[in-house]
């Protein structure tokens, strides 16, 4: 019985420690868990292949060039369309904050899981308006690009 009593004593005292640690860690997660979210603006677009055909799966991510914790993401839907959402704490909010962003396309994983993300060489600017971009993925020897519409 001594073993069970020691185990209960250990897990109870350790559990309290883990609970306190979890509160501290979770309180700081999400980067922007405190305060109001920034003003967000609609960001939509189309992802096209090097041949100009719509990409119909995967995910697009805009990551701020000035705030490493600020990003917006959206799934690529039929006809290559996407709409970005910003995660603020535990909420998904439509749009992205004004600023410069690095853009990365993450293809859907196939059976061999050999697909690699494509990061555009140039940054894009989200402005205080409705933003709509054409993301052109490059082929062999050609770079990818993003063009506002």
Structural summary, described in words:
The protein is an alpha+beta fold and 149 residues long. It has two domains: 30 residues; 109 residues, Immunoglobulin-like (Sandwich), CATH 2.60.40.1120. Helices cover 18% and strands 37% of the residues. It is built from one helix and 13 strands, in the order αβββββββββββββ. The longest helix is centred in the first third of the chain and has 27 residues. About 20% of the residues have low confidence.
Write the SSE topology:
Layout: H1 2-28, E1 40-41, E2 43-48, E3 59-64, E4 71-75, E5 81-83, E6 85-88, E7 91-94, E8 96-97, E9 99-106, E10 118-119, E11 124-126, E12 131-136, E13 145-148
Q: Which labels suit this protein?
A:
149 residues; Immunoglobulin-like; 1 helix; seven-stranded antiparallel β-sheet; single chain; alpha+beta; 37% strand
Would you state the CATH class of the largest domain? Mainly Beta
Largest pleated sheet? 7 strands, antiparallel
Order of helices and strands: HEEEEEEEEEEEEE
Say which CATH homologous superfamily of the largest domain is assigned.
Carboxypeptidase-like, regulatory domain
Helix content: 10-25%
CATH topology of the largest domain: Immunoglobulin-like
Going by CATH, the architecture of the largest domain would be Sandwich
Assembly category: single chain
On the 0 to 100 scale, the average pLDDT is: 80
